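pasting for ref. prot 1 ->
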Amino acid sequence: MRKRDRFLTGILLILIGISIGTLVALYTINDDLAPLSEVRYTEITKSESPFFEDEELADIDSRFVFKTIASNVTPSVVYIETIIPVNTDEESESGNFWNRVIPRRARTVGSGVLITRDGYILTNNHVIEDAVDQGIKVVLNDKREYPAKVVGLDPSTDLAVIKISGSNHSAITVGNSESVDVGEWVLAIGNPFRLRSTVTAGIVSALSRDVEIIDDNFRIESFIQTDAAINKGNSGGALVNTSGQLVGINTAIASQSGSYQGYGFAVPVNLAMKVATDLIEFGEVRRALLGVSIVSVDYERALQIGIEEVKGVEIVVLSENGAASNAGLELGDVILKVNGFDVNESNQLQEKIAVVKPGEKVDLRIWRNGNEFNQSVELKILEQQQVDDLVGIPNSTPEEPESQMFELDVDFHEFDLGFRVVAIPTQDTGNVQLIISKVYKYSEAWNRGLKKDQTIVSVDKIEVEDLESLKELVRKNLTKNGSITFEVLDEDNARGYIELKDN
């Protein structure tokens, strides 16, 4: 046999041996010689107990108490539905049979806060002011429903009190708005967009804000500003601190669209509770009167009068026989503090006086000719005819009642975007002026900045000459474009352009 053949034969025998060995091993293997891994189910550890208790987390950061606050406060915040009439004066005078038989109505929503266990609810005036008889329904957090009656309204602070039956409701704990500081955490609780019991969190962004949203000669605005999200439907809801105490009544949002865009405003609870107490006890607000008109001291005025710091409010008018005059205050006096609290803006002084009852005394810190001293003043009661003496409100002529406006046989129309226009004949030309006589709060027109007493000149660059052409242009352009742009003139003939959208 040749050498090469022997080599190949050897390799073949080796391969055959390996194969036979493998087969023998497969047939003879057993668990004892080659045990397999046993698969077992392991037990998963579960626990309902948190790693940190709520109290421990609260010590770490105040935000960790939000859950507890929401749980405790939400039952005291209620959902309010109000039925309001939507018939316009024009429809009533037109003699439309069906509008008289079946009046047109709309349903609006808002929030309120239970301040007593026997059912007194603090809310905004604009939430319930136009309600029809028996047109207010309150829904509690546990979904129980109650009819509500109006106890009293105060348009000057945009506050109101309503009442439901019952004696064991979840009343909120009232705090002190004077202790609220910029930067502290707050929660806004209400019913935005009909979403019940919504809780949002933010910080106090500023204090004593005057944003000119209350349409009243006696308006008092000294809002708490917050970046907690507040939207339509939050009005009348609660602003609470990290102790779960009520510090404000949510009232308005800073927005051109009508929805939250960064800031909201709340009436300080000290002012709100003074109003609520008066409404419950007397059915009206009894407001204290200092008997001065004042202006905030700015930098230039501080230099003129020689005051070292830019602070305080200066008395520019003293009412004869008013509280301030009787106490010896003089023109040019600068009020620095009221009962120990700084007042550096007119609206701050208004708020501090508004929380005091007529007949009570306030302690004023006065600057006069370089000297500071304290002066006690006994406040008088504000009578309706004393508009000119109201603190911080300039002299003005009271408006005639709207019912008198239409005795001149003028034509008018209510637009769905939230404003009324009257056509006033001009004596010299025989033409008419299209004047905005009313802008409804929180409407599209109000949100976009349309103002009462402005004159409409054109719509989308088309000049309007009478009320009928205005109505037709508004209707056509809204249908076609979904928006309209008014060219308007104010009382000083300043020209402006305002776009309204049909949302």
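and prot 2 ->
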Amino acid sequence: MKKKVTKLFGIVAACVLSMSMLMGCGTGAATDAPASTEAGSETTDAGKTVKIGVLVADVSGEEAQGFRSYYENYVAANYNVEFDYTDALQSAEEEKSAIEKFASQGCDAIISLSSSDRAMQIETCEDYGVYYAIASGVLDDEQYETYKGYEYFVGQVGPSNETEFMAGKAMGEYFKNQGVSSVAMYGAFIPNPMHVYRAAGVIAGLGDTYGGTDDMGAIVGQIFEDQGVDISKVEGDVNLVAYLQGYGDTTTDELNAAIQKNPEAFISVGMATTFFTQPLNEAGIPFSDIDSFTSMNGSAIKEGKLCYLAGKYSSSIGPTFALVMNAVNGNVIRDSEGNAVSFSQNYLVATDGDTFDTYFVSDNGDAPIYDKETLDSIIGEDVTYDDLAALISSK
């Protein structure tokens, strides 16, 4: 279904904007008049800088920094585009305020790397007539069905929730196959769905049940209800001796308490390499993470105790950029049923330094996997859904 767009941009601009805000989205050069709020109503001028606001929950993690470097240092150097990043967003209210600010500053599109409330994000962008795409994580099936026909929602590119579950499951199976009998776990950042699905997968992969079940949907539902992983509900082949969660605010005491339980491995569903590499190396505890192929993680897997990394390469967010650029320039790409596109991406796994280097070197510096030549093949007035699907499935 399509939602009738409420044209708020003009009201906001008239009422609350100062002249400095009208200079553009971010800290770049002065801009032309704000883009039309009618989808596809006009093609962006060749000389106009396209302005894209990026919603960010994580500003310190290796994956987040890799994504940002790709957009700001590579994409912005090769296209007439300007990215403006938020500070760390920790609530739906902060996400909404950020979108409203971007819209008031004349942004042409929003790319989301933050997931406190993506339904609200889509609705707010619809109200302001700003194109919107998801570059990390995806909507759940019910949400996608609700919003897939919205005019300004152009799509999502990233691991599906099922893919997140399978990534966690493969990581759990790795340690089970290594013969460990006890583990500690970090993650399931509520309300971030991708971390919850990963945590559910880890439990299943270890050969354990949660609340008596190993079914993906049932475990995920319980973790959301419990607002975290209740270790008393975990039973099975491998003992979960400690669980901790927090978004950078997990205390040293909490980590030390987990280490004192003497787990044979420390399994993280995100950001352990950012927060815990040094203490886990010092404790001599093998650990894993779902993160990204960056230089810091390379050191951790070659010189430290990181033994399993499931990651996305930094330029994997290239197709999302292509989606919004096409939309801004009048080519809103839809699937065969006329809906916002939804493409799933898989994770790459490294358990040793040589494999890590294979992935890292191939997507580093001035020659990313989604380089300009590749992006040019999916940016343009003649690009179709099939073109995008073929390229994404080949990477």
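The first strand starts at residue 50 and ends at 56.
Residues 1-24, 26-45 have pLDDT under 50 and may be disordered.
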